Structure formats: C-alpha cells, structure tokens
Amino acid sequence: MTNCEECDAPLTIPGDAIQGEIVSCKECGASYEVKKDEQSGLVTLKPAEKEQEDWGE
Amino acid sequence: MDSKEISLSAGPGPKSGIKERMVLQRCVSHYRNLYSTAALEALGHDVINSFQTAMTSGDKLFCTLALAKAGVPTPRTRLAFTEEGVMKSLDDLGYPAVLKPVVGSWGRMAAKLKDADFARAIIEDREYMHPSYQVYYVQEYVKRPPRDIRTFVLGDKTIAAIYRTSSGDWRTNTARGGKAEPCKITKQLDDISVKAAKAVGGRFVGVDLMESPNGLVCHEVNNTTEFKNTVPATGVDIPGMVVDYLAELDRR
Hints:
The structure holds two protein chains of two kinds. Chain A is mainly β. Chain A has one domain. Chain A has strands at 2-3, 10-11, 22-24, 31-36, 43-47. Chain A starts with a strand and ends in a 10-residue tail after the last strand. Among the domains of chain B are: 77-140, ATP-grasp fold, A domain (Dna Ligase, domain 1); 143-251, D-amino Acid Aminotransferase, Chain A, domain 1 (2-Layer Sandwich). Chain B has a five-stranded antiparallel β-sheet. In chain B, strands 3-6-4-5 form a four-stranded antiparallel β-sheet, sandwiched between helices. Chain B has a two-stranded parallel ribbon with strand order 1-2. In chain B, strand 7 (147-154) and strand 8 form a beta hairpin. Chain B is globular. The mean pLDDT of chain B is 94. The interface between A and B is medium-sized, with 8 and 18 residues.
C-alpha cells in the first residue's frame, strides 16, 4: 500500500495497471505514474510530471 | 520509448534501442517531441511525423506561412515584435483580434483582444516573459459559429472529423472543455484537410478549420494530434488505422 504524497490518503493501483499509466488519488486528485520493474514485476508509483507550457498537440 | 528516460546519441553512436524502423512520435511536449524526432531520424528511423513537419506545424507562424504558400485559405494573420508593431497589425485586422503564442497548445495564453487598451495590457504582460512570447502572432477574429472543425488526415485521406463546440469559452479546444461531435467529411472538407496536411508534409495530423463567412479557413495543423475525444464521438478506430498505416509503410 502506498500513500499519497499530497494528502496521505491510501492509493490503489489497479491490478491490470500498465507501465506509464496515470493513477489519480481519489481524495485530492494528485496524479501518479505507474512504474513496473521489468525483472521483478514490482509495481510502484511516482509523482506524474506536471503540465508544462509547451505541452499540447 | 518514454521521453523521460531518453538518452539518445546525437550523431554517430549507438543505436536508439528501438528495433523497428518506423517510430510514431506521441510526446505531448513540443520541445521534447522536436528534438527527439531530430535525433531519432539521424539514427536512421522514419518518424511520423518528421522533424520537418514538427518544425513547421509546431510553430504557428511557420505553419501559417506553409499553408499560405500551398494555397490553403487561412485567417488573415500578421507578425510583429513590439507594441508598436502589434498596434499597426490591429489597425489592419480590426477588433476583436486574436493573439497567440507561436508555440503552445490547448488554447493556452491565446488572448481575444477586444480593444487597443486591452491589447496594450496584454503586450505589457508578455514583455516580462520569455522572448518567444514577444513574437506576436496576431490573427483576425473569424466570425464563425461557436465551433470549429478538427479533421484527422492519415496518409492522403481524411479519416475522421469532429465539430468542437465551446461551452462558455471563446476557445473551442477540447482540452478547454470544448465538446466533440461528429462532422460529415464532405469532398470540400477532405480536399482542404489533405492539402493542409501536405503543406506541412504531415502523414498523420489533426487539421483545425473554421467556417468563415467566405468558406473554410485553416488556422492550425497539429503534428501530434490527440484523438481520445474523437474516437467515441465518431466511432472511427483512429489508433487502429494508424497502426495499420505504419505497418504498411514498414513493408514498403
């Protein structure tokens, strides 16, 4: 179980989560990116990048 | 390949680590997109869209110039670098007019200039920003219905089109809450879309059009077009068609 860095609410990682998927905290909406270790298969979350000025189409 | 983890050789050096020749560029960051495309092409990949296309369509002024050169109707647009230049541009274009950053998306920092005082206030703000924000791209405000059209061109065909209807905001970007509704692909719409795509050398692009009183005008071509709102609105399997297109190119 991992807790949100912003509000400390527990974060749930969906069982079928894939590498790079964005998971949001149900309490405060903070975004996290799913990281999957290729060798161990261990799934962790890290804060997702925030929108930058040059993001878009 | 995740742009956050990229370490690419610039020039001669080890391969990119991607086995396939074809690469579909999907990075939402303009600069990461542009520079990684350049490096990947130098390492022998065929990137969709190409560096040249990313350069041209990623900058609103370069894109407008390319469209105009190819004979695609565009809104009247002027370039200026100072308040004096912008005010001259506005004398020509009239009010309201639209000021957009040359690099930027999702309608970010696009301003509808209602009068000269408002224009001066906006320019004063921009003077404190990065020099790229002092490249003033000033465009006529097209009298259009409260919507614009986004078409998706793949190869030499328009495969999908939506109306983007604004909800309370003059900008219609779906990233700003604009709603996507299906739009019929007429021959006229297909022709102008394909012509706009070819103007920037795009192989998979999103073309933005407005219904002006004088007919369709193209105001933008997007080289890394998003489709998450278009697929449910139109039922067109855009990602599936793109993958098939890439596979076909790879066989050639």
